[in-house]
Amino acid sequence: QQPVQSPQAVILREGEDAVINCSSSKALYSVHWYRQKHGEAPVFLMILLKGGEQKGHEKISASFNEKKQQSSLYLTASQLSYSGTYFCGIPSRGSTLGRLYFGRGTQLTVWP
Amino acid sequence: GAVVSQHPSWVICKSGTSVKIECRSLDFQATTMFWYRQFPKQSLMLMATSNEGSKATYEQGVEKDKFLINHASLTLSTLTVTSAHPEDSSFYICSARASPPLAESSYEQYFGPGTRLTVT
Q1: Percent of chain B at pLDDT above 90?
Q2: How far apart are CA A13 and CA B107, in angstroms?
Q3: How many CB pairs under 8 A join A and B?
Q4: A44, A49, A102 ranked by CB distance to B44: nearest
Q5: Per-residue pLDDT tens over the stretch A72-95
Q6: 8 Å CB contact of B46 and A30
Q7: In this structure, what are the phi and psi dihedrals at residue A67, rounded to the nearest 5 degrees?
């Protein structure tokens, strides 16, 4: 049930953009996005609930395509504080409030 | 608000001993908590769902007799690693979902800071 994330790692200069993808082999009802900094707890970014829905959080936004069973996280004009590992999580079937299964993560490093 | 704590932060124990890790929701009630383990540079692997007042639900492949979970109150869940071995060394993280939901963040899971377990 683990979603597949790509790429595994991204290195950016401050101000550059990045896209992180998350896909599932099974039907998706929602996608949760978290960011984890080294040695810290994951922090909730956003949840996508509807097909084609797009959400934003500062300069971080995401889209969710139910038909393609995938979600993408967009980081624009990246800042140093964006560095960390990004995880997408998908809930167990039919349960947005239930257990989450996370992808392997995408490690983002932003250099000045 | 929405703070989850874990205790201890670090623990080193000898092979064969048992270790208890506590997960507490400090400013909200949580009928459901989740336990994950994370190996270096790897994903969060769900181990079990802890339900207040009832038995935990374990993921496939997780030994329930080895990883004992107790959710004794609406703010506390404990994970006990019994007869720990070096291969149990990992980063254990708990998360909690608020009940009742905290307004807009009703779907959010709040994560604790994690417990680093090293078994020698």
Answers
A1: 68
A2: 33
A3: 54
A4: A102
A5: 999 999 999 999 999 999 887 655
A6: no
A7: -65, -40
